[in-house]
Amino acid sequence: MTNLMFEVAGLWIAALLAGLPLFATMGLAAFIFVALAGFTDSIVPQKMANTVNAFPIIAAPLFILMGNILNAAQVTNRIVTFSKSLLGWTRGGLAHASVLASAIFAGMCGSAVADAAGVGSIEIKAMKDAGYRPELAASISAASATIGPIVPPSLPLVIYGVTADVSVGALFLAGMIPGVLMAISLMTMVAVIAKRHGLPAHPFLGLRGIWAAFREAFGALLTPVILLGGILSGTFTPTEGAAVATTYALILGLFVYRTLTWRDLPGIIVQSAETVGVVLALVMTAGALGWCLSISRVPQTIAPALVAAIHDPRLFLVVCVLILLAVGCFMEVLAAMLILIPILTPVAAQFGIDARQFGVIFVFTLVLGTIHPPVGVVIFITSRIAGISFETMSRAVLPWLVPLLVVLGLIVAFPPLTTFMPKLVLGR
């Protein structure tokens, strides 16, 4: 059946190249394999249903809803104002504030696209008004948006955990140190750029100004504290935390800040349902295709070959990074994850690589694809906000890949950067 699966995979790739939707091609490939292998057709819908019949998957639509509520409630304005009050007085202070605001917002929405569209729209305008070149402002915002999928509540880490059967809570904890390192590396880059290009500093608002901005943003800043505090203390699971955080976001928008009305909710729910529908369609069809790959022993065939050719676990990780960087140039993050997880994770397990380290590396590497061409959905969004061409934005963002690649290299070389927090909190 292995040869049959390879033939079906060839047809599947041809259908992708022809422009058919990814979820449709994965479902079609699963049905073709099942029919040709002599199984009953009912297996495919059963496997699709089993894939989403998992408690952690409930977190995905809740986090999507929470992110949309926070954006609609204009929570981002308060976060950006607070970040400016803290760092605006330094040279290139608005750029530093952009990174900090993205890091804070990352702990609320877990999405690079939401970060770029929400926080990015405010940050880019502020930097342009302060005299920053549009491409510089947009590239800083795009690079800092990549923090979102690495720190909790990361939607890609939820999907990875469900697909690869890894604890979502452990993955959330594993992404915390890398997320902090990403912010530090980008701020270091900002400091270098600020000195070289003479970026402006702004007057220090004083402790009163910082306190006023903090009070305005306090409710928003509590969101990641409640979410992470509840998970770390064992009060609730990541899935339950998603429900708590979504409820809290509603309270903020409707009753605390009063930037939302009940009339806004149907539109937010419809917008969230559209996103969730796309995500779950991909997850379900990928689950069915993943079963076909497993039953045809494709991973079991590829894994020994890779282990025999690559004897060192770190060399395998380097090869994976190169593969994922190449795939990220042409494919959206979630789609690439669902295709490659069933193939690469069994090999990583044979090499004895920690599942949490591999999960963070996997997501991190693919997320870098959102800020480089030709797909680059984040640079597409930020270029539109900044009013520059996609080509100009693609060139401007390339230097900002360097600090992020340095952090990725550290995660590959030093597993404790991803395993320390899960061991500290969970004891394993």
Tell me what you see in this structure.
The chain has 428 residues and is mainly alpha-helical. It has one domain. It has 22 helices and no strands. The chain has helices at residues 2-17, 22-37, 43-52, 59-72, 75-87, 93-109, 112-129, 134-145, 155-164, 168-174, 176-197, 206-233, 238-256, 264-295, 298-309, 313-328, 333-350, 355-368, 377-386, 390-397, 401-413, 416-426. Helix 4 (59-72) packs parallel to helix 13 (238-256). The mean pLDDT is 83.
Number of strands: 0
Helix content: over 70%
Shape: globular
Strand portion: under 5%
Helix/strand/pairing class, anyone? mainly alpha
Ends distance: 38 Å
Write the H/E string, N to C. Answer: HHHHHHHHHHHHHHHHHHHHHH
> Largest sheet at a glance?
none
Mean pLDDT: 83
DSSP helix count?
22
Report the uncertain regions.
none
Whole-number total of structural domains: 1
| Cα gyration radius (Å) | 22 Å
